[in-house]
Amino acid sequence: MFDVTGNWVIAVHGTGGGVADSLDTLLTSLENLLSLSAPDIFPTLFPGLAAMENVHPLLVHFPIALLSLFFLLDVCAWVLNKPVWRKTASWFLYLGTFFAGFTMLAGLQAASEVAHDEEVHAIMENHEHLGISIFCLAVGLSVWRILQKSVLEGLPNLLFQFFSGVLCLLLLFAADLGGLMVYKYGVAVSAAPLSESSENTHHHHEDE
Question: CA separation (Å) from 9 to 24, 29, 177, 206?
């Protein structure tokens, strides 16, 4: 069980704990939370979000998931001849395009605010261009889908599926560059300080 004050509370059946202790922990957590000033409540509840310099890393998961689901579902609907599935896929496309827009704007803001060197800047420029291309292509596919009243067939459908596949490839390349900036160059990441006694110690998670 997790205590919202940031403490882990472990209760093993048969060795204490139980409903009474869980309720007591919950009430104590709420009491501690209510005792905080308004500006301190958010970082206490969401320390990870509070530590972020920009919301771009948070938003980016939505267009990746939604647009990928759109493509997979649309291809399956086409192959299996399921028009209803294609209508559902359309909503994934529209929502993915919506979030892609906000993700792109947040990314542009992050590029101007997050500290980085010249080597990372070149990667960031490519990442930025891919993000803009993803949004523009998603908008184009959404408009095409809305204007097309019936299910696409023949050559128009092949072209639509081709550009949908290109969209997913662009997502893959953009995500790869984003991961490169974070995991290799540590962009917008603050490493946790290590004490001298723990510098050469590796922490392992083991199931008790």
Answer: 11, 11, 39, 17
